[in-house]
């Protein structure tokens, strides 16, 4: 919400103004400009990165003597941040935070927030209380009432966000598109379309597919069903042939084709909000 963003910006400015007051100890200055983000999801990570830029590109010019006391911390209960994304994105974000000096605290669970300190718990270190100037809680988002009402109307009342297809069309109604935090893409499973995939690849209508036939449509399959390629990579397979029980097989019928792809959909997971 714009109003919330404006409040946070004003609070950040006040923290800097307090830290710039004379006759403060170094510890008091550090406390005033210690910004804590609770939650390592997309919102928390983006906010921490934007706050870092705001501090270093704007506020550092206005408060040059305060910059050295600034500390931005991100507290995440899990082992990594951005776990809903590909691991490469997670590692990139964590490395970026490390390079820019953002303090990432994983495996820490916040157990108490007072007006002066945040108490967090770790299985190894136990409870730790740290002083802070501003804390932003971003451990999840709620569904807006208007979206909840709409979801009930289109038969998605038991969900937290709207389900769309890969073209962002809302499932259950025509000519309605959804994107943003209110929606997520529902990845279609390859086994739902395995018969039609087989028919398209079977150019001569022989009822069997050669390895060459499969290779000709493999690119389209990877694009339409990314879980196929992901399954191969995850299991360190070089190609479709590795899905076959008999690696010497040159032709497949529909049942053999189905067996080869049976486990692929296990890699399907709900994509994060768009």
TrEMBL record:
<protein>
    <recommendedName>
        <fullName>EF-hand domain-containing protein</fullName>
    </recommendedName>
</protein>
<comment type="similarity">
    <text>Belongs to the NADH dehydrogenase family.</text>
</comment>
<dbReference type="InterPro" id="IPR002048">
    <property type="entry name" value="EF_hand_dom"/>
</dbReference>
<feature type="domain" description="EF-hand">
    <location>
        <begin position="189"/>
        <end position="224"/>
    </location>
</feature>
<dbReference type="GO" id="GO:0005743">
    <property type="term" value="C:mitochondrial inner membrane"/>
</dbReference>
<keyword id="KW-0999">Mitochondrion inner membrane</keyword>
<dbReference type="InterPro" id="IPR023753">
    <property type="entry name" value="FAD/NAD-binding_dom"/>
</dbReference>
<dbReference type="InterPro" id="IPR011992">
    <property type="entry name" value="EF-hand-dom_pair"/>
</dbReference>
<keyword id="KW-0274">FAD</keyword>
<keyword id="KW-0285">Flavoprotein</keyword>
<dbReference type="InterPro" id="IPR036188">
    <property type="entry name" value="FAD/NAD-bd_sf"/>
</dbReference>
<keyword id="KW-0560">Oxidoreductase</keyword>
<keyword id="KW-0520">NAD</keyword>
<dbReference type="GO" id="GO:0005509">
    <property type="term" value="F:calcium ion binding"/>
</dbReference>
<keyword id="KW-0472">Membrane</keyword>
<dbReference type="Pfam" id="PF07992">
    <property type="entry name" value="Pyr_redox_2"/>
</dbReference>
<keyword id="KW-0496">Mitochondrion</keyword>
<dbReference type="GO" id="GO:0003954">
    <property type="term" value="F:NADH dehydrogenase activity"/>
</dbReference>
<dbReference type="InterPro" id="IPR045024">
    <property type="entry name" value="NDH-2"/>
</dbReference>
């Amino acid at each position: 919400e714009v109003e919330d963003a404006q409040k946070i910006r004003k609070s950040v400015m006040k923290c800097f103004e307090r830290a710039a007051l004379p006759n403060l100890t170094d510890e008091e200055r550090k406390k005033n400009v210690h910004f804590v983000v609770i939650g390592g999801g997309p919102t928390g990570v983006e906010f921490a990165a934007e706050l870092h830029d705001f501090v270093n590109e704007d506020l550092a010019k206005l408060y040059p003597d305060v910059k050295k006391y600034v500390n931005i911390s991100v507290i995440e209960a899990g082992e990594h941040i951005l776990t809903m994304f590909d691991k490469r994105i997670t590692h990139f974000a964590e490395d970026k935070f490390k390079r820019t000096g953002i303090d990432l605290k994983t495996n820490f669970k916040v157990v108490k927030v007072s007006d002066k300190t945040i108490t967090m718990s770790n299985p190894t270190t136990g409870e730790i209380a740290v002083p802070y100037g501003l804390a932003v809680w971003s451990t999840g988002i709620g569904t807006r009432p208007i979206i909840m009402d709409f979801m009930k109307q289109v038969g998605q009342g038991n969900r937290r966000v709207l389900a769309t297809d890969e073209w962002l069309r809302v499932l259950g109604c025509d000519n309605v598109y959804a994107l943003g935090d209110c929606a997520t893409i529902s990845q279609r499973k390859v086994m739902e379309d395995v018969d039609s995939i087989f028919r398209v690849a079977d150019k001569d209508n022989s009822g069997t597919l050669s390895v060459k036939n499969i290779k000709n449509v493999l690119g389209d399959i990877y694009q339409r069903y990314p879980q196929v390629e992901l399954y191969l990579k995850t299991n360190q397979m070089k190609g479709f042939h590795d899905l076959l029980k008999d690696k010497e097989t040159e032709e497949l019928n529909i049942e053999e084709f189905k067996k080869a792809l049976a486990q692929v959909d296990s890699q399907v997971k709900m994509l994060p909000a768009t």
